[in-house]
Amino acid sequence: MTTQPLDRDTVSALVAAAAAAPSLHNAQPWRFRFVRADADLRLYSDLERSLPRTDPDGRGLHLGCGAALFNLRVAAAAAGLGPVLRLLPDPGHTDLLAEVDLRGSAPPDETLIPLHPAISRRHSSRLPFRDEEIPTALMERLCEAAHVEGAQLLFPGAWHVRSILELVQDAEGREALDPGVRGETAQWARTEPPPPGGAPQGVPVEAFGPVPRVTTVPVRDFAAGRPMPGRAWVSFEENPHIALLGTACDRPTDWLRAGQALERVLLQATADGLVASVTSQPLEWPELRWAARDPLSAMAHVQMVVRLGYGPEGHASPRRPVAELLDIL
């Protein structure tokens, strides 16, 4: 265990790492409070950054906050800390998602430390990947990463991948007919570059990626039918590597665990030289989410669709400054 004091700089560094996590539409729906007397770092949901039309039950919000929580754990381990984590510690305050006791007596989790450099490198890539096989040993390592966090990662067979791609098309069609969902996407994913120094959230136009010539990959089109002159149309990989991340139950605690598992998978993939993108698009409609699961597996609830492969890294999305996220008492 490190003997360094838990000063503002130390806590700010932990929160900066947490805030590098992915979230639905890059809304970054989290805020933190550090209580000096207890060395307790608390994670709260920021409901002003929720997406009520796209994510009415808050499942995606919890996944994003869970991913932020995992990054915090990785950064804490790299700093020599062995924190104690409590999920949803106060039933009377559902916005309090986790308490992290930074004075935990356990030694740092040595398995997390190698993932620390991947936090700053991980970006969603909505670019074409190469049609190149992922080694079996690497896929098994990713599945184990999810398992350690209490979730399951499944690489479905060819027929199920085709089914997932059809569900993505179905979801896109439903979104096109729902002005509320379209408006929410337009709010967080603007087709025009932001003014200098503005918009430290949302999906920037540079991160949209090109338009697939045919729908062979589960990549959300953040333009959502809005005109973007000059945006390229390209061919993506013919046989995308799709993984489903899921849980046995479907409660807020499961969503937080799934978010931690998702980020562990993404950081491990980054460390192993893979690039990735994620989408919950076919999971945002209850009837499509039910159809996404593999009836031959024990995965009862799919939480995220993950696309993995070899290819160019994605464009970084903006992050809010730590000063906006962290209160210190």
Could you explain the architecture of this structure?
The chain is built from nine helices and eleven strands. With 329 residues, it is of the alpha+beta class. The strands form three sheets. A five-stranded mixed β-sheet has the order 3-4-2-1-11. It has a four-stranded antiparallel β-sheet with strand order 5-8-10-9, with helices on both faces. A hairpin with an 8-residue loop joins strand 3 and strand 4 (96-101). The protein is globular and about 55 Å long.
Percent strand: 15-25%
**Order of secondary-structure elements:** HEEHEEHHEHHEEEHEHEHE
Which assembly state applies to the chains in this document? single chain
Can you count the helices? 9
Essential attributes:
alpha+beta, 9 helices, 329 residues, 5-stranded mixed β-sheet, 4-stranded antiparallel β-sheet
Task: Give a summary of the structure in a few sentences.
The chain contains nine helices and eleven strands.
How does the SSE layout of this entry go?
Blueprint lengths: L7 H11 L11 E6 L4 E6 L13 H20 L5 E4 L8 E6 L16 H4 L14 H13 L3 E3 L3 H19 L2 H10 L22 E2 L20 E2 L6 E7 L4 H20 L3 E5 L6 H7 L8 E9 L12 H4 E3 L1
Parallel strand pairs: 1-11, 6-7
Antiparallel strand pairs: 1-2, 2-4, 3-4, 5-8, 8-10, 9-10
Helix pairs in contact: 1-2, 2-7, 4-7
